[in-house]
Structure prediction request, 150 residues.
Amino acid sequence: MKKTYKSSVSKRSYVMLLLMKALLIAPFLSIEELSIKDLKNTGFLIYIIITFLIVILLFWIYFGTYYKIENNYLYHHSGPFFGKMKISSIQKITYHSGWYVPVTYKPSTDTIGLIITYNKFDDIYFSPKDRDLLVNDLLGINSEIQVVKN
Prediction:
């Protein structure tokens, strides 16, 4: 079985992305005249490069977050961050909704998602567009997963 699940995107995430982009780009809008002399200033050039890289990273995370089931593994990709877990090691899936997510690692772009507990003490937060579909597909591979709906 090979299946891909796109991450849902909340309006909050979209607004936060736009605000962060605006805050990073705002100093450039206030520059009335950019001269060659400014571009030779190392500090200014470093600021431009770092800002450009941060904006690219934010868009990569925002548009490049997805989850995939392949060869009895559950893969996650969120921009440059990725990983995998054995589906047989998943113990519990908890439906979650809210600003505060009690998990450290969150490759997601929404506040409505799933907390997946695997191995002995590991957990991760996903936000697939169709939570039920992902849960049902995981249960089809590992029927011993405990599902908790709040």
Remarks:
- The two ends are 29 Å apart (CA to CA).
